[in-house]
Specification:
By secondary structure, the protein is α+β, with helices and mostly antiparallel strands. The protein has 7 helices and 8 strands. It has an 8-stranded mixed sheet with strand order 4-3-2-1-5-8-7-6, with helices on both faces. Helix 2 runs parallel beside helix 5. The chain is globular, with a radius of gyration of 17 Å. Bound molecules: zinc ion (ZN).
Length: 218
């Protein structure tokens, strides 16, 4: 594999460790992947190895049909979920699948996360839908997630967790963090009153201003 692929593996280990430290996953749950310069290939975490002991040689290179190209380990049991998203979304460069508490609570309640915070609208695009229930690790779950994704960067998995995607691993990770925080705020707001939803015109304006004006312009 190329030096780029080796760099992607290092990045994957770093983001995996951050995800575990931030409490987005526990033990060996959750998984993440990143596309390689050959768009038909991606690197994914292995099945059943905890993030704190994961090393580069544990990572597996697969193609978007799910075939193992490089690596000795068995890939994540959600391999087909990642493969289906890469096949359906040409712009997806990385995918993070977490089992964080508040996103999972919404997913169990079957509640869509409406646009309620500006950073949610900026990073995620707005509403986060719940994909119909399908058992973990199945091709049916992969299809359900692709159906629910649309133009969003995140989807809640019924009775399961969350998938976030981005053009980079950092972005996919940030999407999961922002959805988790927003889910927490939404649940708390609904406990003390009624969450006020940002209206479509404002959602569009926030998105536009973020895409064209945020950060250090070069
Ligand atoms: Zn999972």
């Amino acid at each position: 594999m190329s030096n780029v692929a080796e760099d992607v593996k290092v990045q994957l280990l770093k983001v995996g460790a951050r995800m575990a430290a931030a409490g987005l996953v526990m033990g060996t749950w959750g998984n993440l992947s990143a596309r390689l310069p050959d768009k038909n290939l991606f690197v994914i975490t292995p099945s059943g190895i905890s993030y704190d002991v994961l090393v580069k040689t544990d990572l597996v290179v697969v193609d978007i049909t799910g075939r193992v190209i490089e690596g000795e380990r068995k890939p994540s049991t959600e391999l087909m979920l990642h493969a289906a998203i890469y096949s359906a979304c040409a712009q997806a460069g990385a995918i993070v699948h977490s089992h964080s508490i508040y996103a999972s609570a919404l997913a169990v309640a079957g509640k869509t996360l409406p646009p309620i915070l500006e950073e949610q609208v900026q990073f995620v695009g707005g509403t986060v839908s719940v994909a119909r229930y399908a058992r973990a690790g199945t091709v049916d779950l992969a299809a359900a997630v692709v159906d629910a994704l649309g133009q969003s960067k995140a989807v809640l998995l019924a009775n399961h967790g969350l998938v976030g995607l981005g053009s980079t691993l950092d972005e996919a990770y940030q999407v999961c963090l922002v959805v988790e925080k927003t889910a927490q705020v939404y649940i708390l707001a609904e406990l003390i009153g009624k969450a006020a939803i940002i209206q479509p015109g404002d959602v569009a304006a926030i998105r536009k201003s973020y895409q064209t004006g945020y950060g250090q312009q070069v």
